[in-house]
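Here is one such protein, fold included:

. . .
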Amino acid sequence: MSMLDNNATFLSEAEEELKRRFKKEEADKRRLPSNAADAPSSDRLDQLVLPDEMRAKMPVTKDKYLVRENPHLVQWEREVRKFLRNLSPDHGHRVSAVMVYEWATGIRIADIMKSPDKVVGRLQSWRSDLRKINKVLEFYFGKPYMTYICGKKVPKAYRVKPGYYIRRHRPYTLTLWAEYTEGVLYP
């Protein structure tokens, strides 16, 4: 008997019997083997549910994305992105958190520091705002350094290289990151 005999089979008798009984082509591969009857379908649900090819993207469900973010940090990142969007990509820039704060609010930090204590009490959150802006800028540009801009000492400045476009860089906060991946984040 040759090794390639067409009539040779390696199946047992039970396997041969099962093969004759069940057709492989007719099998429903999504259903578990069972002798139970099919569950009745719902006409309402059939009309309600979209076909698989028309469904939206899956929602974000990873554990690392289930984070409650600081809404102030999210808002300041929006303002930082607006500020960076207004910078010309033709040449490099040096930016600081104070610049972003003063541009976004119209309030000068020097004026806040010179004002009496009763006014400072109302604007006391400017320090935490600067910390949030610095956190975002450090995410985008790395470690800050001390420099002089127009003869004034700037203790924390960030270098923006020529050709930098903010729309090409993913956001720091997950709230904005979700908008960024959907393509609806401005800027």
About this structure: The two ends are 76 Å apart (CA to CA). The first helix runs from residue 13 to 21. The longest strand covers residues 152-160. Residues 65-180 form one domain.
